[in-house]
């Protein structure tokens, strides 16, 4: 490894930060869960997605990721990702409807789907089933100018990318959890309905754009 560890860490952290903050299904779900159940429910999605990214990064570093770049593998992963997005859209739209039509006490009841363990598993599944995540890792740490430094350098960059994403997750989940904490009962219920509805529609949009990209 000829490149300095500091330069590899800086490159990876900035890369992880830059790809973590733009709007996407994972950020939408972090916001929804943080607003509905607090920081850990939302941050669990980020942690699960980061663990999934770590798996992709390891596969790319070992050279296995290239095998999954085949058209059939990408199509299969894309199809699974789209089905997952559609399922999430259904869950969120149904949740918005139930919250709208239920009594206030019933609407505020905790949902098992929004728990910390479910959040982690959802983030992990979303990361592992996304062909775009694989494409990112192949582009980010599979570049010849980086791989020539050796597997150690690739793993350092990958760790820094994940650290950057986890740092962004702390900020994003905290901001939404603080908003949740400062809302009153009626306002919290109305906001929950709005967030579930908006997230469900966003998931539909992400599914549609993913399908277009997959076909294209």
Explain this structure.
The longest helix has about 30 residues, at about 70-100. This protein has helices spanning about 5-20, 25-35, 40-60, 70-100, 105, 115-130, 130-140, 145, 150-180, 185-215. About 80% of the residues lie in helices and about 0% in strands. The protein has about 220 residues and is mainly alpha-helical. The N and C termini lie far apart (about 40 Å). It has one domain.
The averaged pLDDT comes out at 80
Please bin the fraction of helical residues: over 70%
The biggest sheet amounts to: none
How would you spell out the order of helices and strands?
HHHHHHHHHH
How many H/I helices? 10
The unreliable regions are 106-110
- Going by helix content, strand content and strand pairing, the class is mainly alpha
Overall, the morphology is globular
**From the alpha-carbon coordinates, what is the Rg to the nearest angstrom?**
19 Å
Count of distinct structural domains:
1
Strand % is under 5%
Q: Would you count the extended β strands for me?
A: 0
**N-C termini distance:** 39 Å
Summarize it:
The protein contains ten helices and no strands. With 216 residues, it is mainly alpha-helical.
What is the topological layout?
Elements: H1 5-20, H2 25-37, H3 39-61, H4 71-101, H5 104-107, H6 116-128, H7 131-141, H8 144-147, H9 151-181, H10 185-215
Summary keywords:
10 helices, 82% helix, globular, 216 residues, single chain
């Amino acid at each position: 490894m000829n490149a300095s560890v500091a330069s590899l860490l800086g490159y990876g952290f900035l890369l992880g930060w830059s790809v973590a903050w733009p709007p996407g299904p994972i950020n939408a779900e972090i916001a929804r869960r943080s607003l509905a159940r607090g920081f850990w429910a939302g941050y669990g999605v980020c942690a699960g997605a980061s663990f999934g990214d770590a798996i992709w990064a390891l596969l790319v570093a070992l050279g296995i990721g290239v095998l999954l770049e085949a058209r059939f593998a990408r199509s299969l992963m894309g199809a699974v990702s789209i089905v997952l997005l559609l399922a999430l859209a259904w869950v969120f739209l149904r949740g918005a409807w139930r919250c709208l039509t239920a009594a206030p006490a019933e609407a505020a009841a905790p949902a098992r789907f929004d728990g910390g363990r479910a959040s982690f598993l959802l983030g992990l599944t979303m990361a592992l089933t996304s062909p775009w995540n694989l494409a990112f890792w192949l582009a980010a740490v599979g570049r010849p100018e980086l791989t020539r430094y050796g597997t150690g350098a690739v793993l350092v960059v990958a760790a820094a990318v994940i650290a950057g994403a986890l740092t962004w997750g702390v900020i994003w989940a905290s901001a939404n959890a603080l908003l949740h904490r400062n809302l009153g009962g009626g306002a919290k219920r109305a906001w929950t309905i709005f967030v579930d509805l908006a997230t469900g529609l966003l998931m539909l949009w992400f599914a549609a754009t993913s399908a277009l990209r997959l076909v294209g």
